[in-house]
Amino acid sequence: MATLLFRLNNVAEDEAEDVRQLLDEKGFAFYETQAGFFGLGVAAIWLVNDEQFPIAKATLDEYQTKRAIEQRQHYENLRANGEIPGFFQSILQHPLRFIGVLLLIAFVLSLMLIPFWKTLHP
């Protein structure tokens, strides 16, 4: 019976391709399912042979640990070079969106506080 090895929900395509390539290189028999048109299915990579699951899982865990370190280093390099905007830089890049979010927050808070305001100030 097939065993779920790796879910593909919200996984970058390069990572999914790396996982497929890694499983091919190690000789694991697997197949892939898609979520389908409405997203009701399971987008995942399934291992065909249950007996290979512990080895495949260990291999995948090792890959993910290595990838996490590489991605963190890549992020830190981008951040050090100033290519990732900070909070205030993001506000300056999209001031109308920021003002709109503030107005929406104020509107929701006012709707929430109206009942309390009426009880305190009859």
UniProtKB/TrEMBL annotation:
Matches recorded under InterPro entries: DUF6164
Taxonomy, superkingdom: Bacteria
Name of the protein: Uncharacterized protein
Organism name: Methylophaga nitratireducenticrescens
